[in-house]
Amino acid sequence: MNYGMIGYILAWVLTIESGFMVLFPPIVSLFYHDKSGIVFLITGLVGLAIGIPCIIRKPKNTSFFVRESFIVVGMSWVLMATFGALPFTFSGEIPNYVDALFETVSGFTTTGATILTNVEGLSHTCLFWRSFTHWLGGMGVCVFMLMIIPMAGGGSIHLMRAESPGPSVGKIVPKMRQSAVILWEIYIVMTVIQIVLMVICKMPLFDAICLGMGTAGTGGFGIKNDSLASYSPLLQWIVTVFMILFGVNFNVYFYIIRKDIKSALKMEEVRAYFIIILISILIITFNTLDFSNGNFGVALKDAAFQVGSVITTTGYSTVDFELWPTLSKTVLVIIMFIGACAGSTGGGIKVSRILISLRTIGSEIEHFIHPRSVKTVKMDGHSVEKETERSVSIYMLTFAVIYVCSLLVISMDKYDFTTNFTAVAATINNIGPGLGAVGPMGGFSGYSILSKIVFIFDMLAGRLELYPMLLLFWLPAWKKH
Amino acid sequence: MRIIVVGCGKVGTTLIDSLSKEKHDITVIDTNSAVLSDVSNTYDVMGIVGNGVSYTVQMEAGIEQTDLLIAVTDSDEVNLLCCLIAKKAGNASTIARVRSPLYSREISYIKDELGLSMIINPEYAAATEISRILRFPSADKIDTFSNGRVEILKYLITENSIIKDCTLIEVSRKTKSDVLICAVERGDDVFIPNGNFILRANDIISIIAAPRNAKEFFAAIGEPSHQVKNTMIIGGGMIAYYLANQIIPSGISVKIIEQDRKRCEELSELLPKAKIINGDASNQDVLNEEGVDGVESFVALTGIDESNIFLSLFARNKTKGKIITKINRIAYDDIISTFNLGSLISPKNITAEYIVRYVRAMQNSFGSNVLTMYKLIENKAEALEFEIGANSPVSDKELSKLKLKRNILIGSINHNGIISIPNGQSVIRTGDKVVIITTGQGLNDIKDILE
Which long-range contacts (CB under 8 A, 24 or more apart) does B220-225 make? Predict the structure, then answer.
């Protein structure tokens, strides 16, 4: 283990986060005359005072391997969340630190689950910071870091792999740094476009910024108690479209920039993603026609919004889908698990993993009919390596194990099975709302401290694709070489 | 620069190592995904699994935006085909590794007809490097320009050298040879000397000359013409063949010890002037019988690095001659260099070095016309080769009439293959290739040498 390098990277993460804390929240507080701004400023300055001295000197030994990367990514996110939660507690707006931590983890992991019962009671500064954590967490702070610090050698690819979602993460251009820059550029430009569109359609600027950042990161923190229900249908449609766009593999946008439309259209994962969305919307629209008094347009809008919100693991809502028929709710729960595309800001198991798994099952069945048949699983015209196939299967298994264990622990609380089941699903898949008591109009505030800690772990594990978080608790990983 | 490397073997990896240090955008194509993932985990490069010959794969690697494609797979034909496709698919310069002696005679035809920028033959390059050392074992370092027609040699002036305390004019009067002393290292300083410059002991001088003239020069300054008289080569592979071919004409007698009877017969057919011994060199008796203790140079070129090391250690005990050891695979440089194995030759490193040098020149030549760039003295002096275009401000005038900047020296003029060391009356013509020595940096065009 190269502790020097781990410390260096953690210091960078702290510096970046503190920098943002000093930069943005105080400006917001100046506008709205909040008192919380000063808390953010002081906390951020303390963070900078700790971080900057540690990043001035780069460690001599820069060798960096897979395990360092996974551990450092896991630690970065824990550090980011524990530090980012401090202003909530210091300002007294979320007095209990575990609650504040839950809220911050929910923010950075782009979950959007909240323990707050009255969101509107928060100051504008805190609301902004909540949404900002979505935005930073969506693309990932380590990818952000790769953009500013030159990491020589190939160790950097492990960092990106540990933080970016998907079964096989690769660079889009030969240089790591440029890859990171391109991803962030796409991300920033799309966010700005959405915010501008929403402002044009008469959303107040502050709401547009917060909701835009929440959409971009596929987060889901609303700034109103009823999430997005009170905005005009047009605005809801804009958010729907952008949620779905942010759930698309970012390689597509890279291809489009490159004017390589053919490659963009050829990505099987993205096509499957849109097909799933389309089918889900159709089923739910017809299933909920009665619910919206037979008004097809309203039913379509609500179905599209909810499907887009859940499959991209954003978690905004315009209706209380808790009241929907069982078929619609079941569809929602299924797409909760499917999640967005690999290489997007969304969470969940990812469409590509589902595709690979289904095809592996197919080739396994084929094997019973022709025991001597040799068949490779293919994706986008390339055969999927056995290694990837294996890691996808193991991923699903690990996912199930964590899921069951979490479910068992939180069952000690007073809630019914539906609530518990979807609560774990909503956190580990980084969605936010589930069904039952944690439905779109509910929240996680009723759970015990222990359960909240389990949820915090699940959210982080879900965002970082399980292994970085598991590695943190795997003692042999900490041994020195 | 955007570079695609096809083939990720020994040479490919060495290349990627050097090129990624120089901050190029590198994409690697190989059919073996395990090797690729190793490389992309170690270096900041992008890997693409596939056959480099395939148009689709090249497109995926972004051939259209690529400046240079380097094909170094183990198959000559694949390399040539890669370059051909790349030429058609994009507008990249191409470098291919072609090692078969079959093609080596037609190399310039292939290169011109297929429009390649460079063809590199690692075995041939290694042989060239070895032959240079055998020819001037007393020169510290030897490098070449204009396809070997111009050499740059470094030589240390000793206390009892006859050119000590001479001005350069006196040196040329004494030696009467057509060479140019183009740079002098004295301690940390580097000088581009003029005729009145006085050489001192412990100066390291860089001499630019045609190979024949360099030899005359060394003879004239009383350095006993250090070319070895004979050499014993162990292992009759391709390097041995190229080496023998290169050094036999310059009068070095060659003895090759090779295990395989059939190869021996081939060699004796190809190299009638060399003595071919069929025997196992790991047997001491064979070496003793063939007189290892009397040889002036000993070159270990078997295919196994470990054998080469042991053979050289053995020879070191037997002879005072020059020892040259080929090491191609083993990476433990630090340990090997403590063994006192004489000059170490590594074909993959030489190949990588040649290509990197070309890449540097190419990078230099964006918007300029540098053919070759060679760092004469690391970061202090450069030698650059330019081709003179039409209507150049330096052409068709006597050099003494040109107003050159300070610390600029015209080292040689290659006029249709005839090398001359210029003097004040020399004239540069359109189409000539000239070597410029400078202590400054950033010369991009020949006109930059003028005031």
Answer: B220/B174, B220/B175, B220/B176, B220/B177, B221/B161, B221/B162, B221/B163, B221/B171, B221/B174, B221/B175, B222/B161, B222/B162, B223/B138, B223/B155
Look at residues B243, B287, B11, B235 and name the one whose alpha carbon lies nearest to residue B128: B243
Per-residue pLDDT band for A285 (boundaries 50, 70, 90) equals very high
- In this model, does residue B355 exceed pLDDT 80? yes
Per-residue pLDDT at B433 exceeds 60: yes
For A114-157, how does the pLDDT look when each residue is reduced to its tens digit (9 = 90+)? Answer: 888 888 888 999 999 999 999 999 888 888 888 877 665 556 77
Q: Give me the pLDDT at residue A480, please.
A: 64
Q: Do the chains contact at B41 and A154, CB–CB below 8 Å?
A: yes
**Which residue in this structure is represented by tokens 């050119």?**
B163
CB spacing of A170 vs B46 below 8 angstroms: yes
Distance from CA of B257 to the nearest CA of A (A): 43
Nearest CA in chain A to B18: A153
Alpha-carbon distance of B217 to B208, in angstroms, equals 11
Q: Residue B164 has which token pair?
A: 């000590």
For CA atoms A118, A122, A124, A125, the dihedral sign is negative
Q: Which of A66, A158, A174 lies nearest to residue B45, judging by beta carbons?
A: A174
First to last CA, chain B: 31
pLDDT tens digits, one per residue of B158-173:
777 888 888 888 888 8
Give CA–CA dist B336/B351, Å, rounded. 20
Contact B326, B345 (CB under 8 A): yes
Q: In what order do the strands lie in the sheet with B418-420?
A: B370-377, B381-387, B433-438, B408-415, B418-420
- Asked whether A237 and A301 are in contact (CB, 8 A), the reply is yes
pLDDT surpasses 90 at A411: yes
Place A303 in a pLDDT band, splitting at 50, 70 and 90.
very high
Q: SS3 for B409?
A: strand
Map out the domains of chain B with their CATH numbers.
2-120 (3.40.50.720), 126-220 (3.30.70.1450), 230-351 (3.40.50.720), 361-449 (3.30.70.1450)
Helix (H) or strand (E) holding B37: helix B33-42
C-alpha dist (Å) from residue B391 to A48, A153, B174, B394, B447? 61, 46, 39, 8, 11
CA A474 to chain centre: 24
For residue A181, the chain B residues in CB contact (below 8 A) are: none
Q: Is A173 in Cβ contact with B45 (below 8 Å)?
A: no
Binary contact (B27, A174; C-beta < 8 A)? yes
Stretch (H or E) spanning A387: helix A386-410
Q: Is the ipTM of this complex over 0.85?
A: no
Encoded tokens for A457 = 């772990």
CB-nearest to B42 from A153, A171, A174 is A153
Mutate to test the interface with B, among A158, A161, A173 (most CBs of B within 10 A): A173
Encode pLDDT of B89-108 as tens digits: 888 889 999 888 788 778 88
List of chain A residues whose C-beta atoms are within 8 Å of the C-beta of residue B40: 154, 157, 171
